[in-house]
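Quick review question:
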């Protein structure tokens, strides 16, 4: 005989409808519950009408769903995990929610009552402020967990951190060193996990960059993006985007500092975009819609900074390089910038520099990503 798994109780009121779900466990522990409920003023006063239906299951008794796996994969770890339509929908949503926030309207509160755990193995300004502010603006509460709060992988295993935090929070964002850490968090957490940066890629930054290009160029597809500098996690993210959306991507870097070969091959095999890796920045930037730069020595590489400055001579983005790119080219940088090293002060402050628009769009792109992974 099928067991009753729940009672669905609906109260039909002329101006509204309220529904409640009563668990059999409540009835078994308190047999008087249903009687009291049915005879309470809320349920007995005319003209309310009451309807009770039973949902049957084939099991002898109702069992709680085990908290062991996601019912639907909604992590945001790599841009290439999604198809073109999904990426473009997220960007469209970013534009809509940005306009709403800019209007001063604060009635859109989809994250009300929700919390986000923010894990930072690396210090940050933009990532922390943009995620925390964005989640708060949309009604949620973000919790900062710095490098000394968890010491993930040292004080406590990543899989244990994931399984604890997902019981307290609705979403997890992590900015870490090893890419395996973000993969492990996503594997063991039962709530969505967002990649706030790893040594391998930085998908939230590139989504903000794509949003900025759409705003200033009018489109992303068919553009030419030229990255000048180290073949780092930013380059990997551009390559993963190029495996989904068609555009021309060029990475100009010194010999020995090319991006990961497997990631380059993945982008090329997708057959979506034109991919070039070169050691000639001057030739690379010709006809560019965007010239993009990043620091030559990332976090964790500062002991190599002096050596890299020698190797990267000729890869500085200065006015002469931007002149070769042409008058329509915009300059972009994920920040923080070492002015006078990978880019000159003159280029950062030029009228075609949109680096601070990029920085602002981190908030809006990430809001759209969070809305997507939470199904809002």
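Suggested answer, residue by residue:
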């Amino acid at each position: 005989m099928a067991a009753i798994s729940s009672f669905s109780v609906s109260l039909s009121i002329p101006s509204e409808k309220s529904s409640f779900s009563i668990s059999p466990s409540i009835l078994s522990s308190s047999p008087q519950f249903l009687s009291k409920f049915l005879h309470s003023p809320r349920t007995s006063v005319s003209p309310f009408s009451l309807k009770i239906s039973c949902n049957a299951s084939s099991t002898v008794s109702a069992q709680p769903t085990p908290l062991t796996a996601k019912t639907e994969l909604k992590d945001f770890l790599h841009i290439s995990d999604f198809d073109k339509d999904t990426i473009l929908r997220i960007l469209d949503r970013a534009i809509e929610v940005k306009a709403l926030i800019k209007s001063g309207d604060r009635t859109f509160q989809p994250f009300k009552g929700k919390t986000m755990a923010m894990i930072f193995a690396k210090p940050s300004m933009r990532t922390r402020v943009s995620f925390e502010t964005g989640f708060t603006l949309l009604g949620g509460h973000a919790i900062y967990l710095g490098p000394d709060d968890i010491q993930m992988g040292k004080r406590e295993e990543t899989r244990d951190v994931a399984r604890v935090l997902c019981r307290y929070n609705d979403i997890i964002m992590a900015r870490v060193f090893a890419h395996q850490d973000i993969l492990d968090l996503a594997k063991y957490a039962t709530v969505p996990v967002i990649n706030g940066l790893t040594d391998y890629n930085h998908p939230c930054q590139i989504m903000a960059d794509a949003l900025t290009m759409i705003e200033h160029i009018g489109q992303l597809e068919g553009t030419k993006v030229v990255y000048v500098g180290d073949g780092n996690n930013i380059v990997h993210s551009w390559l993963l985007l190029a495996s989904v959306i068609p555009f021309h991507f060029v990475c100009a870097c010194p010999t020995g500092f090319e991006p990961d070969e497997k990631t380059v091959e993945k982008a090329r095999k997708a057959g979506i975009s034109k991919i070039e890796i070169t050691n000639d920045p001057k030739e690379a930037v010709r006809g560019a819609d965007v010239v993009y730069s990043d620091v030559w020595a990332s976090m964790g590489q500062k002991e190599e900074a002096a050596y890299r400055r020698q190797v990267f001579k000729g890869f500085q983005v200065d006015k002469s390089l931007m002149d070769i790119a042409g008058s329509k080219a915009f300059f972009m940088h994920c920040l923080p910038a070492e002015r006078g090293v990978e880019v000159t002060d003159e280029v950062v402050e030029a009228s075609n520099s949109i680096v601070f628009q990029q920085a602002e769009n981190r908030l809006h792109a990430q809001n759209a990503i969070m809305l997507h992974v939470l199904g809002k």
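Why it works: DSSP finds 16 helices and twelve strands in the chain. The two ends are 39 Å apart (CA to CA).
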